[in-house]
Amino acid sequence: NALLLLLPSESSAQPNTDSKQPPTLTLPNLPTEHLIRYLNTFPKLKRQLPSNATIRTESRACWGHERNCSAEARFQTPQCPGEHTAWVRSKEAQVQTFYYQADFGYIQQQLSELTPQCVPKYLSDSSLECSRYLRFCRGRNLLFDLRDLVNRKDRIRYHMDVLKPGQVLGHCELNRSRLMAEMDHIGSALQSWGPELRNFDVLPQPVLESGACDLVVNAPTFIMKIDATHNMYHHFCDFFNLYASLFVNQSHPAAFNTDVQILIWETYPYDSPFKATFKAFTQRPVWTLSDVQGKRICFRNVVLPLLPRMIFGLFYNTPIIQGCSNSGLFRAFSEFILHRLQIPYQPPNEQRKLRITYLSRRTKYRQVLNEHELLARLEEHDDYMLQRVSYERLSFVDQLAITRNTDIFIGMHGAGLTHLLFLPNWASIFELYNCEDPNCYKDLARLRGVHYVTWEQRELVYPQDAGHHPEGGAHANFTNYRFDVSEFERLVDQAAKQVRSHKDFPQATTNQHEEL
User: Fold this and answer.
1) With contact defined as beta carbons under 8 Å apart, do 391 and 399 qualify?
2) 286-298 mean pLDDT
3) Residues 356/406, Cβ–Cβ less than 8 Å
4) For 136-155, what is each residue's pLDDT tens digit?
5) Which of 23, 184, 298, 494 is most enclosed, with most CB atoms within 10 A?
6) Whole-number Å distance between alpha carbons of 146 and 373
């Protein structure tokens, strides 16, 4: 990218010691269309661009959460071709509802709700502000007393009693009644920061001057209560909400820098097949509570980000209005992860063959018993390039390299279909059979804005048996299946027509920009 060569990213920029040269301008490592909007957010940086910068400096492009952002300048406008009359009074209201449920309008709402909970008198004092129901909070000069954790016999995960009263401290004017009024969403640990912040109290002297800090963390820190580690769908609830929180916290040009600390709010060792994703957010090793337990930790800047299971939250509990799709926030997340992890992009081949990736399961249940027969039928098509993959054998980065360069992605119901987030805009996702969970990946595909196909003829799918749930009873998730070959072929052909007709599908020329 010529822009990033001209204007080094945060990880490559070096101090300029030549007094005859203007100082080097350090910019975050972002896709070009994201960087344009970043610079428009921070106009002082934009004015420092050299005259030969390869960027549209006259652009008024914005994300959509900014107060002065017009609908035309937004990163993306939702598409709402579906009927609205049973839901809202007008088509405009339908678009707006989706925008505030699942797009940058949600960020705008969080920003508008930010309310001081503990107010500083002086610059060296502490501060705390939160959105409604303590879904997002950020603070300065706060102390977390974790000394008691070394005495706990149980490991911590999803616990609501990690802290006791007085174990979160700040030197500021606490509005306790206002803080306690936001405790409605503490039904579980992953809905709110209420279980932790109900223990907030005031320290009589400035935190960093109190002598109470066993460890001072200077790097901005994001404390995360995560949903899962080995299930892709649930762990990407974590990553997506962390990304959304960068926008809520975007009050300083360093908002997208990677010199930040991640602290996972549990004592289990962190390991995940998807742990490489954290490299998109931080250059530092990820901490857990085990790394800091037994100490009083003082954070100069700390963020308590949006959580994975908030009531009417993002990704997992998003209440999507009927008839709408294409969230710009979800598309931005996809582009951000692919860019930061340096996932290569290859345009469709010159022969115009569609690239089909079939995700093969090696689990006990939801195997496709006639998989070879289905794929043999597709291999008869000259217009298709077929690859059969088992992602559990590949690194996550290698998985993304396949997904990003796929036009039709096929797989049984399961967390692996979360890869649809990283398909090209024109791609189709074919959930071979939804196992009687019709909305999970259909809704995720709507949010990302890729075409969704699933099995339509129940009489042409043949389960091995009724399915045997571990806790008793029949369940469609716990058996294996055979599928009618001709119907399978028809649905793939249907998905292919959608791909080729998409406005973003590359035409005959193959000179495509990296950030498609």
Assistant:
1) yes
2) 98
3) yes
4) 999 999 999 999 999 999 99
5) 298
6) 58
Instruction: Find where tokens 């088509």 sit.
Output: 91
Could you give the CA distance from residue 175 to residue 387 in angstroms, rounded to a whole number? 59
Q: First-to-last CA distance in the chain?
A: 13
pLDDT (average), residues 34-49: 92
**pLDDT tens readout for residues 189-239:** 999 999 999 999 999 999 999 999 999 999 999 999 999 999 999 999 999
pLDDT at 4 exceeding the cut of 50: no
> What is the enclosing helix (H) or strand (E) of 454?
strand 451-454
CA distances for 343 relative to 34, 339, 467, 509, 516, angstroms: 17, 6, 38, 22, 12
- For the chain, state the CA radius of gyration: 25
Q: Are 304 and 114 in contact (CB under 8 A)?
A: no
| Nearest Cα to Cα of residue 264 among 290, 245, 246 | 290
What average pLDDT does this structure show over 182-189? 95
Task: Give me the mean pLDDT over the 272-276 stretch.
Answer: 98
Asked if 301 and 221 count as a contact pair (C-beta separation under 8 A), the reply is yes
Q: How many residues does the chain have?
A: 516
DSSP single-letter state for residue 311? T
- Paired tokens of 330: 């979800």
- Spell out the domains of the chain, with CATH numbers in brackets: 32-106 (no CATH), 113-304 (no CATH), 343-501 (3.40.50)
Closest CA to 174 of 136, 147, 142: 142
Q: What's the pTM?
A: 0.93
Structure-token match 């009489």, residue found: 459
The Cβ of residue 36 has, within 10 Å, a number of other Cβ atoms equal to: 21
